Amino acid sequence: MDKNFKEEFTQIIKFEPPLYKQRHQFVKDLVEKYKPKKVADLGCADCSLLWMLKFCSCIEVLAGLDICANVMKEKMHTLSPLPVDYLQPSERSLTVTLHHGSVAHKDPCMLGFDLVTCIELIEHLEESELKKFPEVVFGFMAPSIVVISTPNSEFNCLLPRVMLYRHPDHKFEWSQAEFQSWALETARCYDYSVEFTGVGHPPTGMEKVGFCTQIGVFFRKYPQTRESVQSEKPMEAVYKTVFKAVYPSLKDEKYLQNAVINEVIFTAQIIKHRLMSKREEYSDDPERKSKFQPSMDCFSDYLGKVVVEKSMEPFVSGNEVYIPLTTIFSFPKVNRLCGSFEKLCKLIAGKVTLSSDGSAVMFNIEHENEEN
Ligand code: SAH
C-alpha cells in the first residue's frame, strides 16, 4: 500500500454513525426483514443490542448470554418494563431473560430460538472455546439464522491507534479469507448456507481492505420442527438466570380485562355525553323535545363508519342513561380488544354497572341534573 495514501486515511477514518451502532442497526434491519419471534444475543455485554431489539414488535422472547455477569448487570434495568407499559399493555407478549454462562456450554434454555446474534464475540473466545462454539450454536441451538460479526484485520492498517488488535481482550483478529474459510467450513458441517457482508465502508480507493467489521449471516438449510427440538434428551441447566422481565400484555387475561373495562367506560361516557348535549339542545323547544329521538349521528364521527340498528340506541329513563353493549361493541377499539360480544360480556361482568338484564351500561345522572 502507498504509505502516503495510508497516512492520509488513518487521520480521517471516523464512522458516522459509530461502528457499534451500525452493527446493531444491521441486526435490527435483519429482524425487521425476517421477523423472528425468539432472539438470543450471545456475548450481550451491556445489553444495548437487546434494549434496541425490545422495540421490534415481532419479538416475543429475547435472551442475552454473557460470561461476565457484572457487565450485564450494569444496565440490565433498562430491559425492565416502564410504567407506560403497564398503563398501555401491548398486544404482543414479551419476555426478556439474561443468563450468565459461556457459549462453550450447552444449556436447554437456549433451545428454540429463531435468530442468534454473536456481535463481536468470537474474537474474545479462547482457542478451546472457539472450538466448541460451532457445536453449541449451530449443532445444539440450531436457529434458523445466525449472525456473526468480527473485526476484519485487513482494515486495521487504516486505524492509527491499533497496534496488534483493536481490543486488549481480543484473542485473534481474522482477515476476510480467514473468517470466510472458518464460516464456510462451519456452515458446511452444520448444513447452513452463509452470506458475507459487513459494516464500516473502506474509503474510496481502498475497497480491497473490505468492511471494518465483517459479518457472516448463516441460514439453516433444513427445516426444524418444534418436536425435534423437544425430543433432545433432557439436559441439565448450566447457565444462571440473572434477570427476567415479563412485559404486561393483552394476551394476559388480567391486563386485557383492565383495558376492556377502561375502554367500555370511556366509550359509554362519550356516548352519554353526546346524548345529553343533544337532549339539552331540544329541551328549550317543547315541540322538538317531544319529537326527540336519540340519534347515533351525534357520535358517528367517533366511529368512522358504523351501522347501527334501532335496538342499539342509547336512551334515558328517569335518572338513568342506558348505553346498549351492542353499541359499545360496535366501536372499533372495543371490538378489536374483545374479539367477540360474548367475550365483552364476560370481561366486564361484575366490573361495570349494567342494566338489570345486562344488555346496557347504566349511568345514574341524578347528580348531573342537580348541577345543571
Ligand atoms: N456484543 C456486544 C459486545 C461484545 S464484547 C456488542 O455488540 O457491543 C464481547 C462480549 O463477549 C463481552 O461482554 C464478554 O464478556 C463476552 N464473552 C467473552 N467470552 C464469552 C463466552 N465464552 N461466553 C459468553 N460470552 C463471552
TrEMBL record:
Main EC class the enzyme belongs to: transferase
Source superkingdom: Eukaryota
Cofactors required: Mg(2+)
UniProt-listed InterPro entries: Hen1, SAM-dependent_MTases_sf
Reactions mediated catalytically: small RNA 3'-end nucleotide + S-adenosyl-L-methionine = small RNA 3'-end 2'-O-methylnucleotide + S-adenosyl-L-homocysteine + H(+)
An example molecular function term from Gene Ontology annotations: small RNA 2'-O-methyltransferase activity
Xref: SUPFAM superfamilies: S-adenosyl-L-methionine-dependent methyltransferases
Annotated protein name in UniProt: Small RNA 2'-O-methyltransferase
Organism: Loxia curvirostra (Red crossbill)
